[in-house]
Write a structure and sequence with these properties.
single chain, mainly alpha, 74% helix, Four Helix Bundle (Hemerythrin (Met), subunit A)
């Protein structure tokens, strides 16, 4: 399962968020907390992507990729919570669990017009997690046998995950940041 199998990534298939009139700067700032979390995740995603590309080009070996990934702030922080489905997976999983169990139900209950948006975001979370699990397996295989096939597979999976995550974060931010502050959820 890579991006070619993810039919709903097209923005035209994503439900539009209702426009909320009268959102104050203070309310918008409260919602921007979500963007800050996403920025943190985007930063580590960029570091990991750069390392995978450098390793694939022969500039660093696979063990350095593994060690650097293990030392990112994201992974270090997540280890404090335990490791269920992999390093990067854990923080994303925790983030998505909070959204799925707290933020999204609160939004849907306060704004029925957001119900389709939050259902779509939850569906995208499933695909994000599938790609993360594939990436963790690919990085392990790459570390065990750093050959061209494993490099290519790891890069392909990572780029699919990166594209999906960046698109998902943008859609989520565009759709719910104002609502989070307006309805006092954050």
């Amino acid at each position: 399962m890579l991006l070619k199998d993810i039919k709903f990534l097209d923005d035209a298939t994503r439900p539009p968020a209702p426009i909320i009139e009268g959102v104050t700067a203070q309310q918008r700032e409260a919602g921007n907390h979500l963007r800050n979390i996403h920025d943190y995740l985007r930063s580590d995603l960029s570091v990991i992507g750069g390392l995978i590309e450098r390793a694939s080009a022969g500039e660093v070996d696979a063990q350095i990729v593994g060690k650097t990934v293990e030392n990112t702030a994201l992974v270090a922080n997540y280890r404090r919570f335990g490791n269920v489905c992999g390093q990067y997976c854990q923080l994303i999983h925790k983030h998505h669990t909070i959204e799925d169990r707290a933020l999204f139900p609160a939004l849907a209950s306060r704004s029925p017009a957001l119900k389709a948006v939050v259902e779509r975001l939850e569906a995208e979370h499933v695909h994000v997690h599938q790609l993360i699990e594939m990436l963790v397996e690919a990085v392990i295989a790459l570390n065990d046998a750093p050959d061209r096939t494993h490099f290519d597979s790891t890069v392909e999976i990572f780029r699919a995950l990166e594209k999906l995550l960046l698109s998902h974060f943008r859609y989520e931010e565009d759709s719910i940041i104002d609502a989070l502050g307006y309805y006092g959820i954050l």
